[in-house]
Amino acid sequence: MAAREQQLTAVLAGAERRGEPCPTPQQAMDHLLAPLYFRVILGFGPVTADYTRTLVEDLLRNYAH
Questions:
Q1: Of 15, 45, 46, 51, which cross-links 22 as Cys (Cβ 3.0–4.6 Å)?
Q2: Rounded to an integer, what distance in angstroms lies between the CA atom of residue 51 and that of residue 65?
Q3: How far is Cα 37 from Cα 12, in angstroms, rounded to an integer?
Q4: Which pLDDT score is estimated for 65?
Q5: How far apart are CA 63 and CA 33, in angstroms?
Q6: What pLDDT, on the 0 to 100 scale, is given for residue 21?
Q7: What is the four-CA torsion angle of 41, 44, 47, 50, rounded to 10 degrees?
Q8: What is the tens place of the pLDDT at every residue in 29-57?
Q9: What is the residue-wise DSSP string for 4-65?
């Protein structure tokens, strides 16, 4: 998880430098990684690019206001 948090932190830092509204790394992990791991570990369906894109879009929509 530490590696994933570092990746998210780097991406979010870039967005913040550009003046874009963005979540904290913890919020991003809660909204992006948690559902992905949940699906994989509990077998609730495949993790597809479309599903992942939807998670990212939902997260960004919440922080675009």
A1: 15
A2: 23
A3: 20
A4: 58
A5: 17
A6: 85
A7: -150
A8: 899 889 999 999 999 888 999 999 999 99
A9: HHHHHHHHHHHHHHTT-----HHHHIIIIIHHHHHHHHHT-S---HHHHHHHHHHHHHHH--
